[in-house]
């Protein structure tokens, strides 16, 4: 008699082969950047991760850890600041880096980097579903790597922490118990250009799987509880829609800002905060990029201002910062950033 896990894997393999056939026969995927072989490789990874922890959400042994997921297409300029942030907490976190194959990301030889892992990556591009794939890839690798990764925080090479590690860990892992933890992801249903973003692939391209009333937008950066991380890597139906190219309106095509909010809104809206923990300033944005903070702006008052939020928690992270700002941030790290 087959076990439920075996049946699940067999069904998933069948669906994967069906997907491969569709991919090979479709010409509407020029901006996804993933070959059919790459997609099957990802599906195999997601299967393994999903099957690795079927009943381990409630009875995991301590200590609970945060998985920091770095999505980058360049060097990790702010690695020295993150290393200072992580110092002394090696038993409470893991860090995973998805670096675009064209970049030259490398890690220094400091002891902190024993917790840092460069994962196998594939090419990514802005405004492309390849970013969804990269983020799911990071989540799956983190789930497979350590069963005590209970929160998954997505950050970029331009992100900095705004609080100490202890502050962030304590805020995430205070009651309720692990299996009832909320996810912190922005979910918006009243964004002015929502209809335009929905129709970017064609008027009916998202139907019937994703009716307009289910479509949501939000920030690319999130902090997911493990049960929602598993939801993300198990999902197949919505991905088939969000991986389609935006043939009608490429300027409205930001799949990674749509897929995760839509999926988690449909699956468990009550279990999500609806707000992000990453501060971004969109005033004066250029070409779809948020404001970049320069070296001359770095100060203790700036850090305290960036922390403030209208939600129930302070902001944990902020972006974007220029590479030149690192020196100033390091100078105030111990006395301001990591002193809560």
From TrEMBL:
Membrane topology per record: Single-pass type II membrane protein
Chief place where the protein resides: membrane
Signal sequence range: 1-27
InterPro entries the UniProt entry points to: BC10-like (IPR044174), Glyco_trans_14 (IPR003406)
GO molecular function: glycosyltransferase activity
One annotated Gene Ontology cellular component of this protein: membrane
Subcellular location: Membrane
Domain of life: Eukaryota
Keyword Metal-binding carried by entry: no
Secreted found in the keyword field: no
Keyword list, A-Z: Glycoprotein, Glycosyltransferase, Membrane, Signal, Transferase
One Pfam family from the record: Branch
Record protein name field: Core-2/I-branching beta-1,6-N-acetylglucosaminyltransferase family protein
């Amino acid at each position: 008699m087959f076990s439920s896990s075996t049946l699940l894997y067999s069904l998933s393999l069948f669906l994967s082969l069906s997907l491969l056939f569709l991919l090979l026969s479709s010409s509407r995927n020029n901006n996804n950047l993933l070959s059919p072989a790459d997609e099957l490789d990802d599906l195999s990874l997601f299967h393994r991760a999903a099957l690795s922890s079927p009943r381990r959400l409630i009875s995991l042994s301590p200590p609970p850890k945060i998985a920091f997921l770095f999505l980058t297409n360049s060097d990790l300029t702010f690695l020295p600041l993150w290393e200072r942030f992580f110092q002394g907490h090696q038993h409470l976190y893991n860090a995973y880096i998805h670096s675009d194959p064209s970049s030259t990301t490398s890690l220094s030889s400091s002891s902190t980097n024993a917790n840092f892992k460069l994962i196998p990556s594939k090419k990514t591009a802005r405004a492309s579903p390849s970013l969804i794939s990269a983020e799911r890839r990071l989540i799956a690798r983190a789930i497979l790597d350590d069963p005590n990764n209970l929160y998954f925080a997505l950050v970029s090479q331009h992100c900095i922490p705004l609080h100490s590690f202890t502050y962030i860990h304590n805020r995430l892992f205070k009651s309720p118990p692990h299996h009832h933890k909320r996810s912190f992801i922005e979910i918006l249903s009243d964004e002015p250009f929502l209809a335009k973003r929905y129709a970017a692939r064609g008027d009916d391209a998202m139907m019937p799987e994703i009716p307009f009333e289910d479509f949501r937008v939000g920030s690319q950066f999130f902090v997911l509880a493990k049960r929602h991380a598993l939801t993300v890597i198990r999902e197949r139906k919505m991905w088939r829609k969000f991986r389609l190219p935006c043939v009608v309106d490429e300027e409205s095509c930001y799949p990674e800002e749509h897929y995760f909010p839509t999926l988690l809104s449909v699956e468990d809206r009550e279990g999500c905060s609806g707000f992000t923990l990453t501060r971004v300033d969109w005033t004066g944005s250029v070409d779809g990029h948020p404001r970049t903070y320069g070296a001359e702006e770095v100060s203790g008052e700036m850090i305290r201002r960036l922390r403030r939020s209208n939600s129930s928690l302070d902001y944990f992270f902020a972006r974007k910062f220029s590479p030149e700002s690192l020196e100033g941030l390091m100078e105030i790290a111990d006395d301001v950033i990591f002193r809560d």
